[in-house]
Specification:
The structure holds two protein chains of two kinds. The longest helix of chain A has 18 residues. Chain A is built from 17 helices and 20 strands. Helix content of chain A is 34%, strand content 19%. By secondary structure, chain A is an alpha+beta fold. Chain A has four domains: 88 residues, Uridine Diphospho-n-acetylenolpyruvylglucosamine Reductase, domain 2 (2-Layer Sandwich), CATH 3.30.43.10; 120 residues, Uridine Diphospho-n-acetylenolpyruvylglucosamine Reductase, domain 3; 111 residues, 2-Layer Sandwich (Alpha-Beta Plaits), CATH 3.30.70.2190; 106 residues, Alpha-Beta Plaits, CATH 3.30.70.2740. Chain B is of the alpha+beta class. Chain B folds into three domains: 119 residues, Uridine Diphospho-n-acetylenolpyruvylglucosamine Reductase, domain 3, CATH 3.30.465; 92 residues, Alpha-Beta Plaits, CATH 3.30.70; 75 residues, Alpha-Beta Plaits (2-Layer Sandwich). Chain B is built from eleven helices and 18 strands. The chains are: A alpha+beta, B alpha+beta.
Chain lengths: 492, 399
């Protein structure tokens, strides 16, 4: 901390600056604009103050001060979240973790790494890659998103099919609670089965509503002996969906199976110049990894199923460069949408994976009825859909229509026994749909868990839990973001 | 129809056996409303785990809740009632060439709900993880009788707070597990074991066990299990288990054989029909007194140094090096109090008495030092069970 706390009569800025320093206290309206939204660009609310603490003690002091002032707190990582989990509450204290980006300890004999929350996901793998280890959860935004945000959202990614989500890779946490006290949860040094309730399992995915995570102990994995990527094209998403069902049903556990439909392929090819054919209805991108002998046999079996499902062409990249290029295409899919549409709305729903074909047909029908195109690029292996509803915000009413279509897509997912979110979180965007997935009693139980950590609803107060607010209501008047006005970013 | 049952010597006034989920909720709600204390018992295989209950009026036996609710082999998920035995679940899955990779335990008696509540984890956790990595959804009955769900039936799902994870290892202190949805896996085509020091005249010391474990990682082999069992002379016999496609199992067995030879110990490859697996299960789940130590995997040699002076040749030790677990069945000649105290002094280790003989109950805490976040755990318990009626006193820190 920089100085003694100031008198209560001092301004908000002065009081927080006394904790984190002048440079790390943001109150200028023009500077606050960056923090008005996260990756869900359609909603913006101005925070009262943004503070950028450097360590657990400063986070704790900021929380205590916010509590003294009775202000809500909204935590923020890199702001790449797609559900508005880091959307400010009006006048809140936003605690940004971007300065806490130290890798604190690498312990390869125990296969753990301890990091601060502002560390970029991919930087963990970069730090240990030369030794043959990596951090498994790989959201598409992994080159910019932070571990703290991943913990809040229980982030997934393409390779979660085999390796599990953030929650399966976080062993221990340091958490600042709403009274400013610091709790140490879970494993200390990589020992298994820490005593008592699995609070780590609860905090991961709690969307910033249990406290502020200031240290994370993650498990890292040895890279597989071999990885084989397969790329297959199909006449339509029906055959591609059938191929996924056949592969999973045959007992093959690939590291990843991703699907792109025709519209997504068009966007990706335009943006990245990968040499994917444009005259196909869908493609699958799949990784099989493990020990060499297994990979060869499994890849051969997978190819049989791809063919049986009606694959037009199957390619096996011949080296790592070709393999990584294909994955680069997949991971840049969302950004590539700008090539085919001025705006898009990303949805994130889950269905049982044997239902991909029929659900995609229903989604296409919803788009057709609304007069909007829908591209699909998603984690087919675990049934995690990402329909991208394309629209033009300049046409009055079209954005609202896109959001309504997005909502209807979630209802389709629920009708098939699925979930309203597989990895993006509920956040602000889907709070009103959580009540369609869970009963009032279910939500009341979840609220008990939340209030155990944060009885006053100090952290991220308006997220996840449905309120009487109707779906589609905006919390603030829409004003285009600076990057958007300049053409650097699209809404959605 | 109910056999007599006690929990750590405490005999309940009644044993009730709900026939369906509505009855489970009604029974729990009714007992809670009238202020009775209650505990949930499945197969009763883990009743030695945990401290003596502070009070116990009713045992709610879940074994009649044994139905499959939904099984979609193509999705590799299954939803079952909590009283179904692991053996019955194994049989249902085997018909479709699938399995729940949660091994161990007395499977003909142990139930799915009990396995979740006690966080049962056998040797295959090295590859497949624990219940936490398999559970995707749960329906519970809160102590006040309110049914509540969390998670779902799909393998990927981040909607809402993660109630399923919270139930894992909670020992029935937050309510009854009514149903669970689990992620299941294809059954492997082949299984084989590579045993080092198969014969009595050969053996590993702890440092070599650790070195072999590290070598398996270094060489990128993917065993489903590895364990070392002590012998009366203090040295270890070590087994590495591989499962998967036949060709991959064979290749890995040969590679593993070489790694063991590099430790200066003879190795033997045993096919799946050998009794290596059963030997492990018998030793792992030996009758009381049984202590489970958790340690950072790289601290195996340190742990060995710590406990070696305190045990003797009559004490059997099973070590799971890649996971960081050692299970000790102490001989009567061993001072268990000293052993527990020495391990529990280490902040990076835990020592849980998994199976406690009645004569220890008066002065031994099953769990040891309360975890660092006990305050939060107590608040959580109070929030779910404000009257403290649900399995009181059995859990960590007196919860």
């Amino acid at each position: 901390m920089h100085a003694q706390p100031l008198a209560p009569s001092s301004s908000l800025r002065e009081r927080f600056a006394a904790v984190v320093g002048e440079r790390n206290t943001i109150t200028e309206p023009s500077d606050l604009r960056t923090y008005e939204c996260d990756g869900l660009l359609g909603y913006r609310v101005r925070p009262g103050v943004v503070v950028l603490p450097a360590n657990t003690a400063e986070v704790s002091a900021c929380v205590r001060l916010a509590r003294e002032l009775d202000l809500p707190i909204v935590p923020r990582g890199a702001g790449t979240g797609l559900s508005g989990g880091a959307l400010p509450t009006d006048g809140c204290v936003m605690i940004g973790l971007a300065r806490m980006r130290a890798i604190l300890a690498v312990d390869l004999p125990n296969r753990t790494v301890r990091v601060q929350p502002g560390v970029i996901n991919l930087d963990i793998s970069r730090a240990i890659g030369a030794d043959g280890y990596y951090y498994a959860p790989d959201p598409s935004s992994q080159s910019v998103c932070t571990i703290g945000g991943n913990v809040a959202e229980n982030s997934g990614g393409a390779h979660c099919l085999k390796y599990g989500f953030t929650v399966n890779h976080v062993l221990g946490l340091t958490l600042v609670l709403s009274d400013g006290s610091v709790a140490e949860l879970g494993s200390r040094d990589g020992e298994p089965d820490p005593l008592g309730y699995d609070l780590v399992g609860v905090v991961v995915g709690s969307e910033g509503m249990t406290g502020i995570v200031t240290e994370v102990l993650v498990r890292v994995l040895r890279t597989a002996e071999r990885t084989q990527t397969l790329f297959a094209t199909f006449p339509s998403t029906d055959e591609a969906g059938d191929a996924v069902s056949r592969i999973i049903g045959a007992g093959i556990v690939p590291a990843a199976i991703e699907m792109c439909d025709q519209l997504a392929i068009e966007a990706i090819v335009a943006a990245t110049h990968v040499d994917w054919p444009l005259d196909v209805g869908a493609l699958l991108l799949m990784d099989v990894d493990g020990v060499s002998a297994d990979v060869e046999e499994t890849a051969a079996r997978a190819q049989t199923h791809l063919r049986a499902a009606g694959a037009i062409e199957i390619r096996a990249p011949k080296d790592d460069a070709e393999r990584l290029l294909a994955w680069k295409g997949r991971k840049s899919a969302f950004a590539a949408m700008g090539r085919i549409s001025p705006n898009y709305y990303v949805q994130d729903g889950v269905i049982p994976r044997k239902q991909i074909g029929p659900v995609l047909r229903e989604i296409a029908a919803l788009g057709a009825a609304a007069g909007l195109r829908i591209a699909n690029v998603f984690h087919a292996g675990d049934g995690n859909l990402h329909p991208l509803v394309l629209y033009d915000a300049r046409i009055p009413g079209q954005e609202h229509t896109a959001e309504c279509v997005g909502g209807e897509i979630l209802r389709v997912c629920l009708r098939y026994g699925g979930s309203v979110t597989g990895e993006h979180g509920v956040g602000h965007d889907k709070a009103c749909y959580l009540g369609e997935q869970f009963s009032a009693d279910d939500l009341a139980t979840m609220m008990r868990i939340r209030e155990t950590f944060d009885p006053e609803h100090r952290f991220n107060p308006d997220k996840m839990f449905p309120t009487p607010r109707l779906c589609g209501d905006t919390p603030g008047k829409y004003v285009p973001h600076a990057t958007e006005a300049s053409g650097a970013a699209g809404r959605g | 129809m109910n056999e007599p049952l006690d929990v750590a010597g405490v005999v309940p006034a009644e044993i009730v056996m709900p026939r369906d989920l509505d009855e489970l909720a009604a029974i729990v709600g009714e007992r809670y409303a009238r202020g009775s204390t209650f505990a949930f018992v499945g197969g009763g295989t883990q009743l030695d785990l945990g401290n003596r209950p502070a009070a116990l009026d009713t045992i709610v036996r879940t074994t009649a809740l044994d139905r499959v609710i939904d099984y979609t082999p193509e999705d590799q998920t299954i939803t079952v009632e909590s009283g179904m035995t692991l053996a019955a679940l194994d049989r249902v899955l085997a018909e479709q060439g699938q399995m729940l990779p949660l091994d161990g335990g007395d499977r003909e008696r142990a139930t799915v709900g009990g396995a979740i509540a006690a966080n049962l984890a056998g040797r295959h956790r090295l590859r497949y993880g624990t219940v936490k990595d398999m559970i995707v959804g749960v329906a519970i009955v809160r102590p006040d009788g309110t049914p509540s769900r969390g998670g779902g039936k799909v393998v990927k799902n981040v909607a809402g707070f993660d109630l399923p994870k919270l139930m894992v290892g909670s020992l029935g202190t937050l309510g009854a597990i009514a149903t669970a949805t689990l992620r299941v896996y294809p059954a492997p085509e082949a299984t084989a074991f590579v045993t080092g020091a198969y014969d009595e005249d050969d053996g590993f010391v702890a440092r070599d066990v650790a070195a072999l474990s590290a070598a398996l990682v270094r060489e990128r082999l993917e065993p489903v299990a590895m364990w070392a069992s002590s012998r009366p002379d203090g040295r270890y016999r070590t087994t590495v288990e591989f499962a998967g496609s036949r060709v991959a199992v064979e290749a890995q067995c040969r590679a593993c054989e070489r790694l063991i030879a590099e430790c200066g110990v003879s190795a033997r490859i045993c096919e799946s029909d050998s009794d290596e697996g059963e030997r492990e299960t018998r030793a792992r789940y030996a009758p009381a007194p049984r202590i489970r130590i958790g340690f950072p995997p790289a601290s195996l040699a340190q742990l060995d140094d710590l406990i070696r002076p305190l045990i003797d040749g009559d004490t059997s030790v099973n070590v799971y090096p890649g996971v960081g677990i050692a299970v000790i069945r102490t001989a009567e000649s061993v001072d268990h109090g000293v052993l527990l105290a020495v391990v529990r002094k280490r902040e990076d280790m835990t020592a849980v008495v998994e199976a406690m003989p009645p004569q220890w109950a008066a002065d031994v805490d099953s769990w040891g030092n309360p975890p660092r976040a006990l305050r939060l755990m107590r608040a959580l318990k109070t929030s779910f069970d404000p009257r403290g009626l649900c399995n009181p006193g059995r859990y960590v820190g007196g919860l």
